[in-house]
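Reviewer 2 asked us to include a model.

Predict the structure of this chain.
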Amino acid sequence: MGSTILTPILVLVSWSLVVWIWMYARRMPAMTAAKVDPQDAQHPGALAKLLPSEVQRVADNYNHLHEQPTVFYALVIYTHLAGMVDPVSIGLAWAYVGLRIVHSLVQGTVNIVVARFSIFALSALVLMTLAIRNLMALA
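Predicted model (structure tokens):
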């Protein structure tokens, strides 16, 4: 499974869909329990004030999976198309995906901000390393 650099993209996309299911599995019962009218969710962030933190943080993570990972997707596709794939690049791609999954699990459960930020920062460093390797190959 780890022989192509594109497979980590598939895994992170799949993980994002798992988090989407997790988000609604938490959100729908919480909305019912709080007697929240679905129309109250018409603006982004409106539910943050109406639902408990343990419900909202999974939604926050789902949103996070649509932010920095978009750079990852573009960078991995570039790496593939530019023919810059090697075992180190593949390892970095898998490391990024693993760190993002751990980040999701931390944010969706215990939500310890220092731990979550540390994981995020490490994943950003992995992403930067992959980008720098691609830039250096142009020289």
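The chain has a mean pLDDT of 95. Residues 7-33 form the longest helix (27 residues). We have added this to the supplementary material.
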